[in-house]
Structures are given as C-alpha cells and as structure tokens.
Amino acid sequence: MLSSTLSGFAQERDSLRTELLNQVNVTANRAQNKTLETAGSVSVISARTLQTYQPRTTPEALMGSTGVFVQKTTHGAGSLFLRGLTGNQTLMLIDGIRLNNSTFRYGPNQYLNTVDPFTIDKIEVLRGGGSVTYGSDALGGTLQLFTSNPAFSEKPAVHGKAVARYATGDMEKTLRAGVELSRSRVAFSAGVSIRNFGDLIGGDTTGKQSPSGYKDRSFDAKLLFALSDSWTLTLAHQAISQKHVPLYYRYKLENFALNEFNPQKRSLTYFKLNGKTTSKWASEISLTGSWQSTNEGRLSRKKGSSSLRTETDKVQTSGVIFNVQSNIAKFWNASSGIEIYSDQVESDKIDQVDGAGPVASRGLYPDDSKYLNYAVYSLHQLKIDDWRFSFGGRFNGFRIKVADEVLGNVSVKPTALVGNASISYLLHNHSNFYTSFHSGFRAPNIDDMGTLGIVDFRYELPAYDLKPETSYNFEAGYKFRSEGFAMSAALFQNNLRNLITRVQVAGQKIDGIDVYRKENVERAYIRGAEIDLEYVFSEYWKIYGSGAYNFGKNITKNEPVRRIPPLNGRFGLEYRRSQWYLRPEAWFAQKQTRLAAGDAGDNRIPKGGTPGWAVMNVMAGFEVKHFAVNAVAQNLTNKDYRTHGSGINGVGRSLWLTLTGKF
C-alpha cells in the first residue's frame, strides 16, 4: 500500500532538501549503508518520489532514473536496461527474494510489469554489481523493490486509503483500496487494485495504438508480529493477474490476427524472521522462506489462418535465505549466509484448427524440467579512519535436469565462484572517492538450454553444453553532498566473456524460418559514464539533472553490442511548499545509429536507427490531512517518440489525475 508514501510526503513537505545521496540502501552489501558512503553507483527512489510521479506501472516508475533505460516491447511490458544489459542479464528482487527464475529470457521481457506499483515503498538500483551479494544474472546490475510495511502502534488503530486514477483517452481507469490495522505487537495491511488500461495513444501523427490495452487485478497482504523486543515475524502474500495483454508490434508488423499474453500471472508468498542477539558473530539473524509462481500463457493466430496456438509455461519456485550480520570488531562488520532456490517448470503447446480436435505437442521448454540454485556467500566491510574497504565472495552451484523428448534425459551441474572488492576515501563526511571491482556471472537457465520453437523471428533448438556467462566490472567514482548541493559521477567498464548467443545452423530451415542454437562464443565490453546532480537554491526550489552514456562493442563480431541505449537523461525544476508541489521535467535520448546486425534486422528498430527525442512532463500535487490530489501531464509538445528497441511508441500529450482519500 501507499500509506507510508502519504505519511512520508506529509512529514517532508514543509521545505526542500537534497535527496540525492541522503538515503540509506541495503542492496549493495545486504546491510544498511549511507548511499554517500557506498562504493558503487546506487540510486534510491523514495516513497515521496513515487507519490510525485504516480507511475502507471512498476517499469514506468524507473523511467528517467539515472543509468536506467526502460524498453517497452508492448504497453503491458517494460524491461529495464542497466549499463547496457537487460532481460536475464539483470537481476530483480522483491524484498530480497529473486524475481528472476529459470525461464527468464535473453533480451527484453515483461516480468517487472507483474509487480503492482501500489505495493512499493522504495526502489533501489545497484548499477554494475550484485552477483556476489545475490547470485546469478547481475551482469548489468541489481534492482530491488521494497514493499510497504504496516506500522505498530501503542493503541489499537485502524487506517484506510482509497485511490482513484484516470487518464485522458481512457488510457487508464484504476481503483485501489487498502486497510491497515495495528496494535503494539501486531500490524496488518491489505489492499486490492483494479486497473483497466486502454489502448495507448501516441504523439502527433501516431494516434491510438491498437490493440495495446489490457486488464490488471492484484491483491496483497502483510502481517507483522513482534514476537519480542528483539524478534519480528513477517508474513506476506501478493498476487497479480493480467488478461489479454497484446504484443502490439506483432499485430502491426508481423501479420498476426491474434498475439497476446493471456494470462500473465504471478504470486509470491513468504515469511521472514528477523532478530537481534548479543553475540558479535550473529548480531542480526534473518531467515526467509518463499514460494513464488508464474504462469505465462500465449495465444497466437496469423491473419488468414484457421489455426489457434495456445502455449503455457508455469514455473513454481521455492526458496530459503539464511543471513547473519556480524559485528566482528568496532571497525569490521560482515554479512554471510546461504541461499537455495528450486524451480519446477511445466510447459505445453496446443494447436487447434477450426473444425478439428486439439493437437498437443512439446511446449517451448521441456516439461517437468527442474532447476536447483544453491550458494554460500560472505561480504565484509572495514572502516579505518577515513578509509572504507569492502570485499566478498560467493560460491554458486546449480543442478539442472531436463527430460527432452528429442534429446532424452539431460543433467548438468555448472558452478561459479565470484568476488568483489572496493576502496573508498571519505573526506569530512561529505565527499567519497572510490574505486571498485565486481566479478559477476549468469548461469545458463532452462530458457537457454531447452527452448524449442519460434522465438521472435527465429526457430530455436535446445543446447545442453552451455557454461556460465561472466563479467568483470571496473568502476571509479566521486560523490559529494552538502546541505544544498549533491552530485554523483562514475566511469565504468564491464568486460563480458562466454556470452551465450544464438548461432544460426547453416542450411537449416523449419517452416521457412532460419534455425538457431545457443552457444558460448562471444566476448564484449561496455564502457560508459553516469552523472547525477541536485541543487537546492532556496527554501522551496531545487534543480536537478542526470545523464548516462553507454558504448558497447562485441569483440567477437567486431560490431556494437545489441540494444545499447543511446545517451539519455533528464533535468528538471521542483517547487515544494507546505501542501503544494510543482515539478516540470524533461526527458531526452539521443538518436541511436550504432546498430548490431541483430538490431538492423529487428523490425522494432527503424531503418538506420532510432531517432532522438525530448519530451516535457509536469507533475503537480496538493495534500491535506485526509485528501490528496496528484496530476501528471505528459509529453506537453505531443512528440512522436520511441525508446530504442521498443515495439510501441511513447504516450502523447495526456493527463493522469489521481485522487487519494485516507482516514
């Protein structure tokens, strides 16, 4: 729920201050660290920022965030790029639990869109790291979503909240209702979201992009028990169901009469036991058990065809995380633990021709595949005068079993050993010069190994001899913060090895489509720069801006890395006084003409590359004790634009209006 968002907004509304580098993050080291003192590039999107932007979806909450580029394959999707990488090469977490599973696809995907933005209290983005801390997939970085917690109260209390949102052109009609009950030892919250998204209306000459609308229903609940003064138990559940989510570009460009996700479902249930002890070796202990389920259905029919194809992929994931915080000495603390995740994959495909019975066949993945992911890790931080030293390591093992009807039973057991290290020099508690190294990996998953069928515009065959992809990320940066000014700047280079890529099988076609198989054959690097600035120049006014540049080269093919975002960023001005705020903001991206061969052949990218663009948005809001109104006017100049690699254009001139009542 957004109850903590509204309370946080009320507490901070009287005057402006620099938010940049003023937050605490836990994603970098599994322990609370001031963002200023963290030896790495971390962005924190606070509850107040989420209240200001009123994002339609969780991916759109990240648009404009420093170093994050959001690609939208369709209106009901959204895949973030961290330092030029996306899909299963970036890691996503919810309350410390992996969202990534063993069928996450290479390239952009829609999974982040299955998180209800009304449940989020804070977002942390760690760019360029995370494999040592959280495991496979963090080649480009790690995104962590923290959901809202109900608060304990000395006396029994009941609070409620209702939200209604409408967008011009019927692009959104949303209702959200939530309740929070609290006592001194027990706190409970629950909420329901009903969201109907109409077809997205683009700018200028684009007009309505149909079909692109869909329906979304979600439910969440969280229960906290204070077992004692030192121990807390959290029980949580969240579920979301999306129906008839069209892949717009397939209708527009690929001669489909029907192509949609139906359904697109995800649920997560977990318990988390947290406690503190008097032992320096186990000052804090956390045990988490989770059960997560995803259900992706795909319906497709070509124009003029009488055949309807129904594909279903289900993944059941159970997980256990045991973490121990240690205060070994006054200058030395550590975070160590074990993680275990187990996936079971069900996959099927049914073709139904008008007037004939259904014909079942192998799904996209081998049915009843199993994927075990286990790890042990230890992270350490040393504080010596003005110096900070961090280092850590992780051993990760996997046991992957598939029963392929073509290749028979296959079992593989890849492993990975990764480490990181950093050095920071803090000057007068307002400057941080740092350098860091992170090694990372992405273990081959069921999508890499077991895919059989049409993916995008290729036909894929299974591959069972794959090794983990690896990365070696070097970064140097500087952070500065005073009462009225803050900045963060970083230079990085990420060297990528054993990249898994689709290799065409010479001379083979299936149904007239080229045949590919994945292999570890490529090397690449991505280098770039990021900057973030914020200046409060009066009690009520501030200006801010950020930018990110990525340059990627595929060494093996002597061409650009696929889908590299262009130079992009934002800048804006904010006025905030008493109950009011006004925030005009511009987003921009330069043209991207550095294309890999795969980009040039991608029908979502215009011939010659994606044009540059700049759009102007304005956020405004007003809040009193029991009521708040927020308005977001997007793309004031009605610009036609598309983020690089997307399958649908951005929204045109439009207004989103949100009304919130609470008691």
From TrEMBL:
Major localisation: membrane
TonB-dependent receptor plug domain ranges (all copies): 36-142
Alphabetical UniProt keywords: Cell outer membrane, Membrane, Receptor, Signal, TonB box, Transmembrane, Transmembrane beta strand, Transport
Top-level division of the source organism's lineage: Bacteria
Coiled coil: none
GO molecular function: siderophore uptake transmembrane transporter activity
InterPro entries per record: Beta-barrel_TonB (IPR000531), Beta-barrel_TonB_sf (IPR036942), Plug_dom (IPR012910), Plug_dom_sf (IPR037066), TonB-dep_rcpt-like (IPR039426), TonB_rcpt_CS (IPR010917)
A Pfam cross-reference name: Plug
Compartment list: Cell outer membrane
Occurrences of domain TonB-dependent receptor-like beta-barrel (ranges): 195-636
GO CC annotation terms, alphabetical: cell outer membrane
Membrane topology: Multi-pass membrane protein
Gene Ontology biological-process annotations: siderophore transmembrane transport
Family in the record: Belongs to the TonB-dependent receptor family.
Name used for this protein in its record: Hemoglobin/transferrin/lactoferrin receptor protein
Taxonomic path: Bacteria, Pseudomonadati, Bacteroidota, Cytophagia, Cytophagales
